[in-house]
Amino acid sequence: MRLVHRHDGHERVLASDVDVADSFLTKARGLMFRRSIPDDYALAFRFDGPGTRSLHMAFVPFAIDAVWTVEGEVTKVKRLPAWRGLGWATADEIYELPAGAADGVEPGHEVALVD
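Structure tokens predicted for DUF192 domain-containing protein (115 residues):
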């Protein structure tokens, strides 16, 4: 599975190694207690419908880019610093990527998981 960014007829792979946090426990744990993540990695969080979704960086010792989407359309992109980062936005999916991986992704663009 890959995470793809589409905008103005262009397509770019943001991550070629994607894990889906699909249980309560994996969603609650997120990236906590990991020392690092590979450059081509993303963690995807899927929810039943749009709602205000938050992320925190407690026990995450590296910065990440977070992308919130509703039906594939980006609603927010934010760089979250290690340990103290916090962010929230409306989303039915959230993607956590290495810091810098979401450069160029902006609200209104499309981000999707592709098999």
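The chain has one domain: 2-114.
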